[in-house]
Amino acid sequence: MVKPRCTTGLLDGRARFRTALARWFAKSGKDYPWRRTHDPYAILVSEVMLQQTQIATVLGKGYYTRFLAAFPDLRALAAADDASLLKAWEGLGYYRRVRMLRETARAVLTDNRGVFPQDLEDLLKLPGVGPYTAGALRAFAFNLPAVLVDGNVARVLARLFDFAAPIDDAAGLRQIHEWAEALADPKRPRIHHAALMELGQTHCRPGEPDCACCPVERFCSSTRAASLPAKSRKTPVTKVTEHALWLRDARDRLLLHHERGQRRTGLWQLPTRDLTEIARLPVLSESLYSITRYRVSLIVHDGGTAGRGFRLAVDEAWRAPSELPDLALAAPFRRVIERLL
Ligand code: SF4
């Protein structure tokens, strides 16, 4: 059904829009743990964790609670060693995020005497803190005015303003940010931004939105919501194949590789080999996983039991199955190893 275009103009009615949004959120907003706190550290952890990871995973699998139990404050995180840090993040992927989080904690401790700055410019000086994270800290920790645009908010704004141009080029991004700034509620930043994000996760979800029950439907200009937002770029998926070796020793320990200098640096995984080296070995397992724009086919070859005199390559070690729960293993490899064991 084609809706009539909003005639009053959303910007003219922004005060009523903000009130409608805030009222709906007060009644229907979800009770996430990071919404119960004003502690900038706990909010920063949630924001970093939720980059590229769904709320259901972060909460449902207990990552957020476990991480804060392991590193309850800036000091604990700043002092964390690589092994415990990666172990606490295991399964969330994008491990650079957690290393950068530790850098942020160290910078707040050393450069700001353990107190998070509130000023936007000072926040942006912290390592790993970009405009989005700085805005999230200002709004959610300090209830200060901020401009905050994530994927959900961009979609909601594109629909509210019936914006048919791509939102992922410079002009589109600029326009979306202008609208976000114009609509932002200076009196209740915390509620406003949380509500807008939640609207994008619920009624104004990707694909077919639920306009009939939307709390701000009367302010919305969208006539083709399901096809918005428009995007100009599609990142092509690249297929790659990884060949890994399953090798035990006479004591039934498993050969593992400790990754260094690569994207999984600090994590353990099965040693990978060039296909020419292990092509003749029987295949034990084949699985698929995705990472960024890669679709990886992981093939594990059975190397049997290593004979006497087998020499370990650099960064390889034998590990007993009983040690595996305490090691930070790359998630696709943990799944395969647990299945094969
Ligand atoms: Fe507009 Fe529908 Fe999204 Fe509400 S759910 S903002 S009415 S497109």
What does this molecule look like?
The model is unreliable at 1-7 (pLDDT under 50). The protein is globular, with a radius of gyration of 24 Å. The strands form 2 sheets. It has a 3-stranded mixed beta sheet, with helices on one face. A 3-stranded antiparallel beta sheet has the order 3-2-6, with no helix packed on it. With 341 residues, it is an alpha+beta fold. Helix 9 (131-141) crosses helix 12. It has 2 domains: 14-227, Orthogonal Bundle (Endonuclease III, domain 1), CATH 1.10.340; 238-340, Nucleoside Triphosphate Pyrophosphohydrolase. 40% of the residues lie in helices and 13% in strands. Bound molecules: iron/sulfur cluster. Iron/sulfur cluster is lined by residues 156, 159-160, 203-204, 209-211, 214, 216-217, 220, 222, 225. Iron/sulfur cluster binds next to helix 10.
